Predict the structure of Glycosyltransferase family 1 protein.
Amino acid sequence: MERQGILSKNIIANRQNENISYENGYDRGHNAGYEGGDQEGIARGHPNTLLPIALVITASKDLPSLKMMIYHPFNHLKKLGRYNFRVRTEDTVSREDIEFANIVIFVRNVEPHAYRCFEMAHEMRKRTIYCIDDNFLEIRAGTQINDYYADPARRETFINFLKNAHIVHVNSEFFADYIRLHFNPRVAYFPATVDYEWLDQEVKPSRRDGRIVIGYEGSHKEDDFKPVIPAIKRIFKEYRWAVKIEFFGFIPASLRGYPGVTHFPYEQDYRRFIHRLYTLNWDIGLAPLADTLFNQCKTNNKFREYGACMIPGIYSQMPTYSSWVNHGETGYLVPHTEEGWYEGMKQMIENPALRQKIKEQASSFARSHFSIETCVDNWESQILS
């Protein structure tokens, strides 16, 4: 995780609890091999296959964002023979790394010394990209993670990255508009990806108990679940043994040990995570988000993954999802209230035809909008061209 002395143990634990897993052993070896080949080529004066080189400078190699925003599309670009890339942390990157790069990509950096690398890249007339998937300026005050990002030096650094990058890349349309309005007109917006090569190797198991399974996968969302918890308890009271709830990752404190509720721990490896989500075979997926400015800037992660895993989802009616979900067709949008969540779950429980329609259409939508090929096309047309 982040180096000791910069991130507190609480921040490190928070990073470990993110719902999207980190690089698995295969990916580490795979990418390390590429990087080793690059370095050998540089040492001999022949950069690897003479492809253009993207240098990625990241706050940490353990960031889920690095996996979703960089490794997936750039591994594919490398396979296609279009772009080479190497990844360095902001603590290990060298001047030589920057010199040999055609473009320099920064991922979630907020430390002042990372910005010095950014300035160095500009001095060398390198094109700079800043990839960011959270609005650190709008994190709720009083939270542990806000204590880190609210530090004046880091806050100023974050703003400088937003203002001065040649292109800011985000996964949220709302966040893109926010950055264009306040900081920088040069924003590339397109969603992250799902690697269907992983999912297509799996077969969904059949269930025989006849119960409807409602699930949630993700990181800590205690505040976002406040109106959902009483709605879930009403559902249990009304439908008794006809339904059960499964939490994969975070579980609200008040539902731990609750009858009919099962909890699966976080799966830190992304490949195993997405396989597990696919094979859980939920009838309904929950995606609650309170309508805050921070949440409005977040990516449509749940819609992307539920759609890819053929899970009909219920989503809070706010920009993160309403800009993507076609209500009653690719998902079910509800007001973020107890009554809204209760009625949404009730409608989905009692209408299997609706669930099947959403399942099929969301799956088709995800394959056409969130594939590796689509993501690579966006990188090439909006950033690399």
The CA atoms of residues 192 and 277 lie 18 Å apart. Residues 1-27, 33-48 have pLDDT under 50 and may be disordered.
